[in-house]
Design a protein that fits this description.
The protein has about 220 residues and is mostly helical. It has a single domain (about 1-215), classed as Four Helix Bundle (Hemerythrin (Met), subunit A) (Up-down Bundle), CATH 1.20.120. About 70% of the residues lie in helices and about 0% in strands. It has 8 helices and no strands. The chain starts with a helix and ends in a 10-residue tail after the last helix.
């Protein structure tokens, strides 16, 4: 499993790089290298944490994003989000790398880098706390799934999505693409829809989740939604 993990991360990094630099038409794009460094160093730290603390969850997270037993709506939605994500990376490569449609001041590049790091830190915290944070929406009866209400889950019900929600526009800023920042709204909408539908499934089928939702009102953003 360990070898599979690092091979998977390496292939993902190559795929991200190919989309960004291929669309940009050049490897001389420092902001893209900075994004890849921040994102994949964080991803490696998250992976190592799971290796040590929860290899069972890591094994689940290495499975495909479309699986048997997964809600049908989630199969469709996660596939759509995946296609949008690929298009989003290409768009930012065309914008900031090839055609230079956008002009983003350096301080916003830096702010974007900080936002990417913070978003990944939130994801790290959520995965550290929740042993049931698999990549698909389904009730894990075989693992005796329980409600998690500690750590970031005491603040919002879907903190991993909160981290990704911060990651999207921050990536656009770090890469220097206003088009990427704007298009990240489509990804955010997809994520919010998934969070709402997942929340519905958990309230229907997971013991104790209705009471938890009554205590922790926010799904993604404290005091907002």
């Amino acid at each position: 499993m360990i070898a599979r993990l690092w091979i998977s991360l390496a292939l993902e990094a190559v795929a991200f790089g190919a989309l960004l630099f291929g669309a940009a038409g050049t490897l001389r794009w420092p902001a893209a290298w900075a994004f890849l460094a921040v994102f994949f160093v964080a991803a490696a730290l998250i992976s190592q944490m799971l290796v040590v603390r929860n290899p069972e969850l890591l094994r689940e997270r290495l499975k495909p994003i479309v699986q048997r037993g997964q809600a049908r709506w989630d199969q469709v939605l996660i596939s759509l989000i995946g296609v949008l994500f690929i298009g989003w990376l290409v768009l930012m490569g065309l914008d900031a790398g090839r055609f230079r449609w956008s002009t983003v001041p350096m301080w916003l590049h830096v702010a974007g880098g900080i936002g990417v790091a913070l978003g990944m830190a939130i994801v790290y915290s959520a995965l550290r706390e929740n042993a049931y944070a698999i990549p698909v929406v389904r009730l894990q009866t075989e693992r005796e799934q329980q409600v998690v209400s500690s750590g970031p889950y005491a603040v919002v019900r879907h903190p991993m999505y909160s981290g990704v929600l911060l990651l999207f526009p921050s990536t656009g800023l770090l890469l220097g693409s206003w088009w990427g920042v704007g298009a990240s709204a489509l990804l955010a909408i997809g994520l919010a829809v998934r969070a709402a539908l997942e929340d519905r499934e958990l309230q229907r089928g997971l013991d104790g989740y209705v009471a938890y939702a009554a205590r922790v009102r926010a799904r993604l953003i404290p005091l907002v939604w």
